[in-house]
Amino acid sequence: MHLDMIRDEVETTYDKVKSLAGWSVDKNVVLTITSYYVTAAKEFNAVDFSRAMAALKERAGWFSPLRGHLLPMMAAFLTQSDDSVDEEADRLLVKQRVLKQAGFRNTIHSYLAALLMNDDASQYQEEADQAKRLYDAMKKQHYFLTSDDDYAYAMLLGKQGENPEEHAKAMRAYYDALRKEGFRAGNELQWLSQVMTYIDITFQPQLVKRAWKIYGMLRDDTKAKPVHYPMIGFLTVFKVGDGEIQEIIRLTRQLEQSKRFKWNREMALSVAAGHAMHQMTERADQVSVSLAASVEMILRAQQAVMAATVAAVAASSAASSSN
Fold first, then answer.
1. Residues 249, 214, 219, 172: is their CA dihedral positive or negative?
2. What is the pTM of this model?
3. Which CA distances in Å does 182 have to 124, 148, 179, 204, 282?
């Protein structure tokens, strides 16, 4: 798809989402929803979106995390399946209850983790327990940094079935090496270190160098910030080449020209990178994507990046409301 066409699609989708979600909805939320539809190559359907919002409202108690400002974003996730939004809403709540029983707190992040679970009910408990074991091991390595905003990655990475203690140690090794390389310490770096273990938990120093190179390319030509660290991690482990990184930069610049991104230019990079990841699934045999990365892994990574973006939006909004 030509860059102008992608930009037009983003603008059209943004206006539709904004009109339906309401003008009181945070602009970052609208942009994230827009990113979801565009990067998944899924046309925004106002009827399905409205039904999904209604389905979540009907099922969420007054004090449920689902009733917060991220309700429209969660509704967007429910429209990804061919099943009815009512079925998807019921399934989401069942998954989240299993996560609560496994020891995860009742926050928006447990719902985001639930989105990454398999739809086979017979696997719910096993996936929840795997994720909790990995989360607990991560907590031992980084007690103060590890919190509920790591739930989604614990779920995604727990599916690998590795020894949780060894997996968490690999994350810590990447964290220390990445920080030494020049990345800024904090939650975003922890997410990056987690992503670096997505395909193989064996520590690989060359991946640290590659991640720093990708970040440098993006930082020099776009508004790359720590919020983009997880995406940089996926681009690294999928062994995306410099040519594809330049495509992301070109699309980012095109999107930055849109008034929708005037005050949110960092979101332009998120949309561009997400679109590039979707392209990987359509032409994996033509781009320099690691052979170890299956289409399914890339799709799951896309979901995780969206969850991380939601987490970042939630944290940003919470900080704003407390000021």
1. positive
2. 0.90
3. 39, 26, 5, 17, 34
Look at residue 321 and tell me whether its pLDDT is greater than 50: no
Task: Enter the tokens of residue 295.
Answer: 């289409």
Count the alpha carbons within 13 Å of 285 in the hemisphere toward its beta carbon: 0
Residue carrying the six token digits 């607990």? 136
202, 170 contact by CB (below 8 A) = yes
Which pLDDT score, from 0 to 100, does residue 323 have?
Answer: 38
Residue 253's identity, in one-letter code, is R
| DSSP string over 199-246 | S--S--HHHHHHHHHHHHHHHHHS---GGGHHHHHHHHHTT--HHHHH
pLDDT at 281 over 80: no
Helix axes 295-322, 265-282, angle to 10 degrees: 170
Residue entry with tokens 């060359």? 206
Entry field: residues in the chain: 323
Asked if residue 308 lies in contact with residue 152, where contact means CB atoms within 8 angstroms, the answer is yes
Which of 238, 246, 248, 230 has the alpha carbon at shortest distance from 289?
A: 238
What region does 161 belong to: left with phi over 0, alpha with psi -120 to 50, or beta?
A: left
State the average pLDDT for the chain. Answer: 87
Give me the sign of the Cα torsion angle 110, 114, 116, 118.
positive
Q: Are 153 and 115 in contact (CB under 8 A)?
A: no
Q: Which residue has the tokens 């998120």?
A: 270
pLDDT tens for 104-136 read: 999 999 999 999 999 999 999 999 999 999 999
Percent of the chain predicted with pLDDT > 90: 53
What is the crossing angle of helices 71-78 and 85-102, to 10°?
110
In 3D, which of 260, 210, 315 has the Cα closest to residue 13? 260
Are 236 and 174 in contact by the 8 Å Cβ rule? The answer is no
